[in-house]
Specification:
The structure is a homodimer of 393-residue chains. With 393 residues, chain A is of the alpha/beta class. Chain A has twelve helices and eleven strands. In chain A, helix 5 (108-123) links the parallel strand 4 and strand 5.
């Protein structure tokens, strides 16, 4: 039996359920004879390199449950793609503190870090087990059916579009909402869950997986406006043009002739300008919002499935490590969509590290401006039941 | 007894509970012998002028309850400050359809509309009763203790800051969030409810009631950063400079030398630039979000008090009109804060129409960058209990 201390850390953009994974791992580790100490790294790798640890054996279960239900990384997070030197420093600290288990909660970059450190340990014949615990609102990890953190962010997006579509129905016009997702459109696609009835928005959905064509966008909007007298648009922040360049750095000028600035609302403003341009002298009410950080941090609306699974991957990671002393990444296998059932399994770190995945073709419609039923079947059980929309018209 | 049809309409920016007021009024009206028909105006005054009505006597209670729990104006809303001619047209339609009761759900502009039409009826000796039913997320109506719609938007803002503050604690830096409120800082001030413990944000709160000084803002941020290593800022979209001009139209250039454009993220970007400027060559992580329309439309997190009171003002308005045939605006009187208790009363339309109110001085701290305990005592019972924040550090 591999016996020694464990270090756990959180990395990358936080989610609303990443602390469920942390608490799942802590509570499991407290039951293990093989684990002689539980060190929380303050701000991930940065904390390890600085030996900035917190003892995670002392908190009451009640405090930990409060932490589990609180959004964002309670240990502090970090944005750091470590080079060889940093990984060596980390490994040195691990040896110094007799750390034999390392659990890193994060995305594909964190899996890569875990992988490098696991390889170092192997080369030095240091008995050591590192396990990557998945989290990302982007849902872009390979192998796993989906990523803890995604469903709650998707729930935020779906609720946001439900309410905003009603707002748009009350005061008609074109409304553009920019959703997180630089390279993958999973979150943006989740906006489709807001629709419960014919005519409800979002009416158009654009994801980074498909080339974004401004002229096509303009005619799409006009077609929806002609049909419903209003139009709600979901668009990923990362949409790109035919050259693969982000739409916002294409050097386009807006309808007022100003060169677009980068900025928090820039893409929404740019697209609003394009809609106004398409209508020429005809006055159309156009508004844009950029959902921003609330998508990954808004409390009290987490998906129940997401919270449970985030807890489960943390717990499973620790049990796997102690039982097998074998590095890997925890992944989720969907057993059934109705009723929804899933289980954890371990996949080699190399299968998750570095590379990311994106929305499958079958989830995007032919026109590239909406999702398919297959997507709704995939995402709906993860996000859970949504409030019912009442209408008079 | 004044006997005839009633018209009900919704006006201005929707809220998440404005349909509670609508349903409260419909259900009360269905019980009244004096009310011989219930006409819903499609898009407020615009619908009345076009005689675009929906019969509100036919829907099941179940459907109405779904509507009550759905954000945004189910009848459709309108942004229209009617002139004399429009009011005359409205009055003509009322006479044509034997409308004797008019209920208008909206803010101070809607109260003004109701007032004009009430005066017309008086001059023409047309037996008629018009009642204004209050709603606004801005909370800026006179006389009433607070406005239906405000507390739910305030709850959104408080929850948003709770989560975002944890996000900022995980990945430190300066985070600026722009909150709705052009002339009044009520919603922005509600961000303070996110704080449960020393060191939690928002650390700085700027409202339109106080002059915004860029240099003071920069030194405020640096002071908070020096103390906590991070800083979360809540700022009203309507902050103004010493000349009373909106900060965003002051012709300032950002840190890159670009003249600021108006746009959805413009104020946040401008303030971010000012923070970076204050730090010169020192690299500080600065981010900004603009909460946008979600504040007034996000479903499933409404304040219970708000939903109940929104229902209550609709119900009370109808009962008052039938019993007294006297025009007026429904207002809320707070009877007790702990336990929270309130009641409705009627105030003359002239006391609510046109003019708006703003945050009292006693609710803003001396430095003009935070709220006071008196504010928290006022707002907390309206917003209701918030989730508990768990921390490890």
């Amino acid at each position: 039996m591999l016996k020694g201390k464990m270090v756990i850390g959180q990395s990358g953009g936080p989610t609303t359920v990443i602390n469920q994974s942390l608490v799942g791992a802590i509570l499991a580790a407290r039951q293990q004879d093989a684990i002689t100490g539980i060190l929380g790294a303050h701000h991930g790798l940065a904390g390890i390199m600085n030996e900035d640890f917190i003892d995670l054996t002392t908190q009451s279960v009640e405090q930990l449950e409060d932490v589990a239900n609180t959004p964002a990384a309670a240990l502090g997070s970090v944005r750091l793609k470590p080079g060889r030197a940093e990984c060596e420093k980390v490994f040195e600290v691990f040896k110094k503190h007799d750390v034999r288990y390392f659990f890193y909660i994060g995305g594909n970059d964190s899996a890569e870090t875990a992988h490098i450190i696991a390889e170092m340990a192997k080369q030095e014949n240091y008995d050591f087990c590192t396990v990557h615990i998945p989290k990302t609102i982007d849902n872009d990890l390979r192998v796993t059916d989906h990523c803890p953190g995604f469903a709650s962010a998707a729930r935020f997006v779906a609720l946001a579009f439900m309410g905003d579509d009603r707002d748009n129905a009350a005061l008609s016009g074109v409304k553009i909402n920019v959703v997180m997702g630089r390279d993958a459109g999973f979150l943006t696609a989740a906006s489709a869950l807001a629709r419960q009835d014919e005519g409800q928005g979002p009416h158009l959905i654009y994801v980074p997986e498909k080339t974004f064509d401004v002229a096509k966008f303009q005619s799409d909007v006009k077609a929806v406006m002609a049909k419903y007298g209003r139009c709600v648009v979901a668009v990923s922040e990362g949409i790109t043009d035919a050259e693969g360049q982000p739409v916002m750095t294409s050097g386009e000028r807006d309808s007022h002739g100003n060169l677009q600035l980068s900025g928090t609302g820039a893409l929404g403003d740019f697209l609003s300008g394009k809609v106004k341009e398409a209508y020429g002298d005809e006055v159309v009410r156009v508004r844009a919002d950029t959902f921003g950080y609330l998508q990954r941090s808004f409390p009290s609306i987490v998906s129940e499935v997401d919270a449970q699974e985030a807890r489960m991957v943390g717990d499973f990671g620790v049990h796997h490590a102690v039982a097998n002393a074998e590095p890997g990444s925890v992944a989720i296998r969907r057993l059934s969509s109705s009723p929804y059932k899933s289980e954890c399994f371990i996949t080699p770190l190399s299968t998750v590290a570095r590379e990311a995945t994106e929305l499958k073709d079958e989830y995007i419609n032919e026109a590239g401006n909406d999702v398919t039923q297959a997507w709704l079947d995939y995402v709906s059980p993860l996000v859970g039941a949504l409030p019912k929309i009442g209408q008079l018209f």
